[in-house]
Globin (Paenibacillus elgii), 131 residues
Amino acid sequence: MTREERELTFYEAIGGEAAIRSIVEAFYPKVQAHPLLGPLFPEDIMPVMEKQYLFLTQFFGGPPLYSGQYGHPMMRARHLPFPITPERADAWLGCMAEALEETGMERELRLAVLERLKGPAYHFVNTHSNS
């Protein structure tokens, strides 16, 4: 079976390593500036950005970079120390939507990527207060 005969992974469809890097680089300034999200992140955002790059690469069907360095993602457990509200999940997805648009990703693909990220975003919700 040739490459053209099989379905592309999300990772391949969005443009692989370069695209994931662009998304992460467009995303985190928006997160840091967001009043609900910024306070949850450290001032030195570079390690967070690198982990996000590794995770999204794996999540979208690329090489298992995150697991190779950190083991099973266990993302809900890793986010439990932070108060994740439905409003913060919405804000996270909003920042991601802006980042995807900023990278020039085609609309249909952007919508598919956001749909794929909705599950994890809302799965991380662990509190319903705005504190």
In short: The domain at 14-123 is CATH 1.10.490.10 (Globin-like). Helices lie at 10-14, 16-33, 46-59, 65-70, 75-79, 86-102, 107-123. DSSP finds seven helices and no strands in the chain.
